[in-house]
UniProtKB/TrEMBL annotation:
It catalyses: alpha-D-glucose 6-phosphate = beta-D-glucose 6-phosphate. This is Putative glucose-6-phosphate 1-epimerase. The active site is at H163, E265. One of its GO terms (molecular function) is glucose-6-phosphate 1-epimerase activity. One of its GO terms (biological process) is carbohydrate metabolic process. Keywords: Isomerase. It comes from Photobacterium lipolyticum. It comes from the Bacteria. Its EC number is 5.1.3.15. InterPro entries: Aldose_1/G6P_1-epimerase, G6P_1-epimerase, Gal_mutarotase_sf_dom, GH-type_carb-bd. Belongs to the glucose-6-phosphate 1-epimerase family. The lineage of its organism: Bacteria, Pseudomonadati, Pseudomonadota, Gammaproteobacteria, Vibrionales.
Length: 292
């Protein structure tokens, strides 16, 4: 993403600015501890760079910012379902306009909260009342919390994910640990499989790990770092890399995009979470970086 093409609309504080990029508004954070950007279209974290580090979050060089589809890369919010459990795929939250609720900052970092509530458009897709708050904490580590509240007069169930794309140097050199050894293999029709404690990737991978540990660690030797991912409020971790053929087939990915990204997602899978009226549940991911 060419940050020089961001145009400032409104400076909200020393660290938080509302900007325009193509068709979307971006909440831009520039702080001594980190830099980041959140698209109000989708409530979508677009980039995150702690001080002294390169980008932790991967964004496609061909990502489209036109409000008609989800942005390729970053951290899309999959809600109120994961995958193809309904239409559109991965739910409507990542294609909805979120509202900036609050922002706070101190010497340790910046907190930005967005909200999304039911409306006529969501009722046409999913006939329930809800309130979602998406809270980002930016500093030397990244914390993302999605709190879903049932504001209806009956219970409902949901699934979803914080669909995090991570920036790596070369998929051929990366290894992942902490995801557990039991998974459903989506490439093979969701069959149940068991694997080792360490995952290396040399082909398309789309797996739902059903007994993930904390943290899941991406070891990226060429960048001389490890990315630590601690998930909460989840029952699964999805690991995805499209490999070459699928990358080529997607207009918003470069043909070789698969080489520099891998998704490790905090996921509510299957039947998901059931909330009674007034109940809430929080799905989280916490990301930090350490040197090798």
């Amino acid at each position: 993403m060419d940050l020089s093409k961001l145009s400032t609309i409104n400076a909200l504080s020393d660290a938080v600015t509302i900007c325009q990029f193509q068709d979307v508004k971006i909440v831009r954070i520039i702080h001594q501890t980190a830099e980041a950007g959140i698209s109000l279209h989708g409530g979508h974290l677009v980039w995150y760079k702690p001080a002294g580090e390169q980008d932790v979050i991967w964004l496609s060089e061909k990502a489209e910012f036109d409000t008609q589809k989800a942005i390729r890369g970053g951290i899309p919010v999959c809600w109120p379902w994961f995958g193809k459990a309904g239409a559109p795929s991965h739910g409507f939250a990542r294609n909805s306009q979120w509202t900036l609720h609050e922002h706070r900052e101190n010497e340790k970092g910046v907190i930005v909260a967005l909200t999304l509530e039911d409306n006529e458009e969501t009722h046409a897709i999913w006939p329930h009342k809800f309130h979602n708050q998406l809270t980002f904490e930016f500093g030397q580590e990244l914390k993302v919390h999605l709190t879903s509240t049932n504001t209806d007069d009956h219970e409902w169930s949901y699934s979803g994910a914080l669909h995090s794309y991570f920036n790596i140097d070369d998929i051929n050199t990366v290894s992942i640990t902490g995801m557990g050894d039991k998974y459903l293999d989506s490439v093979q029709g969701d069959i149940a499989c068991e694997g080792g404690e360490t995952l290396t990737i040399d082909q398309e991978v789309d797996r739902v790990y059903t007994e993930p540990k904390n943290p899941i660690i991406i070891t990226d030797p060429n960048n001389q770092r490890q990315i630590h991912i601690e998930n909460q409020g989840h029952n699964a971790a999805v690991i995805w890399n499209p490999w070459q053929a699928l990358s080529v087939s997607m207009a918003d990915m470069a043909d070789n995009s698969y080489e520099t990204m891998v998704c490790v997602e905090s996921t509510i899978h299957g039947q998901g979470i059931t909330l009674a009226p007034g109940e809430s549940h929080t799905l989280s991911t916490i990301v930090s970086v350490s040197k090798l």
